Automatic annotation (TrEMBL):
Keywords, comma-separated and alphabetical: Cytoplasm, Methyltransferase, rRNA processing, S-adenosyl-L-methionine, Transferase
Xref: InterPro entries: RsmH (IPR002903), SAM-dep_MeTrfase_MraW_recog (IPR023397), SAM-dependent_MTases_sf (IPR029063)
Descriptive protein name: Ribosomal RNA small subunit methyltransferase H
Intracellular or extracellular location(s): Cytoplasm
Job of this protein: Specifically methylates the N4 position of cytidine in position 1402 (C1402) of 16S rRNA.
Family indicated by similarity: Belongs to the methyltransferase superfamily. RsmH family.
Annotated EC: 2.1.1.199
Catalytic activity: cytidine(1402) in 16S rRNA + S-adenosyl-L-methionine = N(4)-methylcytidine(1402) in 16S rRNA + S-adenosyl-L-homocysteine + H(+)
GO biological process, one term: rRNA base methylation
Organism whose genome encodes this protein: Devosia subaequoris
Amino acid sequence: MGKPSLPETEEPGGPHVPVLLAEVLAALEPVAGRRIVDGTFGAGGYSRAMLEAGAEVIGIDRDPSVAPHVDALKADFPDRFTFVAGTFSELDTLVAQLDPVDAVVLDIGVSSMQLDQAERGFSFMREGPLDMRMSKSGTSAADLVNELEAEQLANLLYAYGEERKSRRIAQFIVAARQETPITTTLELARIIEKAIGRKPGDAHPATRSFQALRIAVNGEFDQLVEGLFAAERLLAEGGRLAVVSFHSLEDRIVKRFFDPDKGGPTASRHLPQVEMAPRRWQPVSKAVKSGKSELARNPRARSAVLRSGVRTSEAARAVDLSGLGVPRIRGAA
């Protein structure tokens, strides 16, 4: 089982701290004259660091609440910072008029800024509406919790949260909502804790379930896959892509995207050798994780993994989920 993405701490969060910042900068080389897309702008931590290093930056985000951070960078770097509202899954289309682009960075998952805003409903540590919508539109977590049948809900929690006790949790949720709709974060967290208990020292019992609901609400796995292939279409030979993920499910997708052979069947030495597919990314870095000093400063970085690669001259692939290990909900269409 993988670690839940961006696990929460018991203490109220401070300002957003971009994880693996030095390592991301080393992978992208944001020197003067380079144009870099920050596809998951958030609080602008990566963007600011790249601007300070001399690069031009195009920020992309679908969350309207990033506006103050956008305004701050526009004021500080009016000639080198541009912002485009939208999803990183469409980044090649969104920045088409701003070509050429030399590099792309993606920071996958919910940010500290979003976790710390109780009204957004991402946190099981803070009372707020059961929302979790990054774009503030569409189906909410409350809709899923109150409307899905028990089996559908259990399958969602297992596929997207790797929650082994998903069926028991779903049963408790369905029983509770028969009394009254579940509308707040702490209400749902209490139901989950009642369902599976809590051992001292363990992660909060609602961690995996909240992760699963957030991923479902925001279509995060599909967004990730589309964003990776969009970056492949956008970047020319020598272009760099760096991706920071916070969960084994996300990291598996990124790993197999960079190196498709990782997701294929193991070849037998007794069978004819299969010809290797052309490499779209070479070289590809090994997984990079946070060191002790960063973990001491920012406990939320403990699950972060950075993978990066350099674009070759091979033509971009069509979007293809096969071999990437994208989780699918059992019984879903």
